[in-house]
Recover the amino acids of this structure.
């Protein structure tokens, strides 16, 4: 584990976390590294204290600014897809949000670079990473459509908002044999897909029906 484990009590206790892991196993998440990361990262630390008792239910929760923290099953599924990238070490995340997905990734890969378009969320997420001791996560306030070219190429890119068209900048920042994990679609019809960068092109694999907030250009407070 690269970070610190924040203990909980009652509905945020180790026992409650264990029940979440049992649910994920029952839903087909069988990667031990991914399950270990989900168990280690204190999800209640990434939501408002008033809803912390819901943190280990398998559901999305509001985090303000009309954004959500993804349900643990989807986080686990996307993390598993990233881990299946050959020789994965460096990952770019588009859409930091509260930082939960980045924290999970930080426990299974060497480096995570994350871009968030809402400044207040990026500042809060950066503070959480410091307090949890996750030194292998770097967060940037900026336009996710532009990626983070300075540290490219990446082994994998994970997009935590839905888009109908993947920005070309993101594609250009993935190495050959790398992967993009992204929800494709708008509104009520979205598909989580893997795009594998192979032989100069892209091979698309459908994973799951999902619901994400839309990927938007630009930045805001």
């Amino acid at each position: 584990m690269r970070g610190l484990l924040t203990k909980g009590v009652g509905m945020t206790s180790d026992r409650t976390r264990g029940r979440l892991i049992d649910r994920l196993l029952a839903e087909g998440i069988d990667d031990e590294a991914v399950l270990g990361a989900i168990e280690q990262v204190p999800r209640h630390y990434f939501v408002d204290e008033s809803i912390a008792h819901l943190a280990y239910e398998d559901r999305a929760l509001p985090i303000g600014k009309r954004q959500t923290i993804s349900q643990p099953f989807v986080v686990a599924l996307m993390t598993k897809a990233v881990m299946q990238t050959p020789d994965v070490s460096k990952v770019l995340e588009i859409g930091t949000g509260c930082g939960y997905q980045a924290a999970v990734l930080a426990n299974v890969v060497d480096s995570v670079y994350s871009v968030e378009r809402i400044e207040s969320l990026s500042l809060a997420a950066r503070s959480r990473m410091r307090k949890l001791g996750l030194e292998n996560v770097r967060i940037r306030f900026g336009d996710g459509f532009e990626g983070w070219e300075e540290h490219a190429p990446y082994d994998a890119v994970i997009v935590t908002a839905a888009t109908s068209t993947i920005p070309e900048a993101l594609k250009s920042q993935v190495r050959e044999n790398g992967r993009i994990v992204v929800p494709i679609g708008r509104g009520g019809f979205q598909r989580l897909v893997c795009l594998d960068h192979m032989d100069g092109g892209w091979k698309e694999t459908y994973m799951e029906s999902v619901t994400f907030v839309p990927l938007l250009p630009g930045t805001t407070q």
User: Anything to note?
Assistant: Residues 118 and 220 are 5 Å apart (CA to CA). The chain has a mean pLDDT of 94. The longest strand covers residues 174-186. The radius of gyration is 16 Å.
